Amino acid sequence: MQLTRRDIVKMGGAACLVAGTAGAAFADEAAAGYVVGAADINFTKETDVLIIGTGISGLAAGMEPILAGKKVTFAEKKATWGGDSAFSCWFMFATGAKFQLDYGYTTTIEESWEASKESNIKTFDYDWWPAWIEGKTFANTEFVDVSEAEFGCKYQEPATEEELPRLFARVILPADGVGTGYANILTPLQENLEAKGAEFLYELTAKSLIKDAPDGAVIGCRFEDAEGNYVDIKANHVVLATGGFVDNGWMMNKYLPNWAHYGSLVAGSSMGEGHAMAAAAGAMIDGMETSYVYCNLMGDIPNATTWGYWAPMVLVLPNGKRFIQEGQSHDAAQKALDNGYNEWWVIFDQQAFDARCVAKSVENNIVAHEEAYVTADTLEDLAVAMDVPVDTLVATFAEYDGYVEAGEDKAFGKVAHLKSLSAPYHALRLNVRRYKTSGGLMVGGDNQVLDVNGEQIPGLYACGAITTQAFASCSTCCATGYFVGKTIAAM
Ligand SMILES: Cc1cc2nc3c(=O)[nH]c(=O)nc-3n(C[C@H](O)[C@H](O)[C@H](O)COP(=O)(O)OP(=O)(O)OC[C@H]3O[C@@H](n4cnc5c(N)ncnc54)[C@H](O)[C@@H]3O)c2cc1C
Q1: Å from CA of 194 to ligand 1 middle
Q2: Judging by DSSP bridges, how do beta strands 92-93 and 171-172 pair with one another?
Q3: Residue 11: what pLDDT?
């Protein structure tokens, strides 16, 4: 059989397999060839909703279908659930969630939507876009409420203005603060999905989508199990929640060459396999080069990259000098590179151990990364332990303390947590890493994946970091997953 651009291979009967490897699927020219060793389709399992990937977006996609009594099957290539979401810092956004309103933040999601509607509906020109973005915006809040009420997820009492001055009313965290989403969100969600009847299949790697005809609906997926056997699963709705492509060197070189040579923080989940399978099924591939707009680089101890938002920190380069306003610490990796370094130090004191939003993360990370952790009772000893010039570090702190006293950071304009540190001092060394990507599939008005002509591919849905619309952020991965599930549950 000859392969076309979409690598469509007719496999006997009416159904056909649309193959695609994460590296070859986006070639434009037609290629002549034959699929060697591909077995005929043999459905051994049937389900209503087949969700491929068990990170936060996939789990979120299962919520409403399982509550609606549908048969939901999760298929995951790894031996356990969680994906890259398990390592996330879980800095999330929400407005008008029940626990926020209970706490006394009065803005409802309706008010928030009215205020942002005009700019949001302009993002894309599609006819269906205004309704979709409204649905996704509300899904963001609904995810938080339903995950709490029905699936046992736990959120922290919202930050006060003092704790997070700029964003306090909108940012939400898992119950034990930064970096605790695995315990407080993913685990209860997975356990309760399973308790409510969802099936979880592990060590099944999705290889090809199955269509009822070359230009027809997606009706299932072919997987490979741990022994290399094919497993074909039939489904009414197939949801791609396979994450981004940050672990795929070929794709990184093609779409984000400037980041390709930095080491990856995560391993083996985000290989772009869903992008390739969808492209082979005729999906439009969109926005992958623009990842850098939404996903800046990160430190290799990810939580520590974000602590500066929540507590007083001083960030210095290996030369002992400050280089960033620490209240915007997420940008530190890029700023370190801009200064000619690919590592930096986060220096903190007891105030970080006392800040409830980061305390657990601080305690956990100094134990988990003792190779990168030093502590000392004087700045001089700290500098020696860090192997940075003693005089420079002492001078950096003297200058910083002067800004604190004056109430104005003349060097970097730091406003939040402009406070001095005191002994004992603690420091963690961070290295620049790539950690996530955005872009790939666009879903249309019914949350089905758009083909190259902008039409929805029946039966094929997508959510999370594989989609352009999720921008690979936690909240939008939750929201797009929940929104897909809500669409399917209503059918
Ligand atoms: C270290 C780190 C810190 C972050 N911090 C934040 C933050 O504070 N705030 C924020 O907004 N965002 C943050 N992000 C980004 C955000 O967490 C991710 O974008 C989001 O969790 C991705 O969720 P997902 O479900 O789309 O993908 P994932 O969680 O990666 O899940 C994808 C799943 O699909 C599986 N899979 C892939 N291919 C196949 C296949 N062929 N067959 C079967 N299964 C497959 C994978 O194994 C994985 O389990 C962070 C990300 C990282 C890595």
Answers
A1: 20
A2: antiparallel
A3: 41
CA of 86 to the centre of ligand 1 (A): 8
Whichever domain contains 208, its CATH number is: 3.50.50.60
Q: Which pair of structure tokens corresponds to residue 423?
A: 């002994």
Nearest 5°: the CA angle 42, 281, 242 is: 85
Largest distance between two CA atoms of the chain? 78
Are residues 68 and 201 located together in one domain of the fold?
Answer: yes
CA of residue 269 to ligand 1 center, whole Å: 7
Identify whether residues 391 and 475 lie together within a single domain. no
Same domain as 456, residue 426: no
DSSP 184: I
Please identify every stretch of the chain with a pLDDT value under 50, giving residue numbers as ranges. Answer: 1-13, 28-29
Atom from ligand 1 closest to the CA of residue 277? 41
Per-residue exposure over 280-304, b if at least 16 CB sit within 10 Å of its own CB, e if not:
bbbbbbebbeebbebbbbbbbbbbb
What gap in Å lies between CA 195 and CA 230, rounded to an integer?
28
Do residues 292 and 302 both lie within one domain?
no
Q: Which residues line ligand 1 (CB under 6 A)?
A: 52-58, 75-78, 83-85, 87-91, 205-206, 241-243, 265-266, 269-271, 273-274, 302, 435-436, 464-465, 472-475, 477
Give me the number of domains the chain comprises: 2
Residue 36's pLDDT is 67
- Tell me which of 233, 297, 474 to substitute to probe ligand 1's pocket, judged by most ligand atoms within 8 Å of the beta carbon: 474
> Could you list the residue range(s) of the whole structural domain that residue 163 is in?
1-296+436-491
Q: Mean pLDDT of all residues in the chain?
A: 93
pLDDT tens digits for 173-224? 999 999 999 999 999 999 999 999 999 999 999 999 999 988 899 999 999 9
β-bridge mates for residue 18, sequence order: 8, 209
Pairing state of beta strands 199-201 and 72-75? Answer: parallel
Domain boundary among 386, 417, 433: 433
Question: Residue 438: what pLDDT?
Answer: 93
Residue 309 and residue 262 share a domain: no
Distance 397 CA to ligand 1 centre (A): 38
Whether pTM > 0.85 for this model: the answer is yes
Nearest-angstrom CA–CA distance, 157 and 177: 9
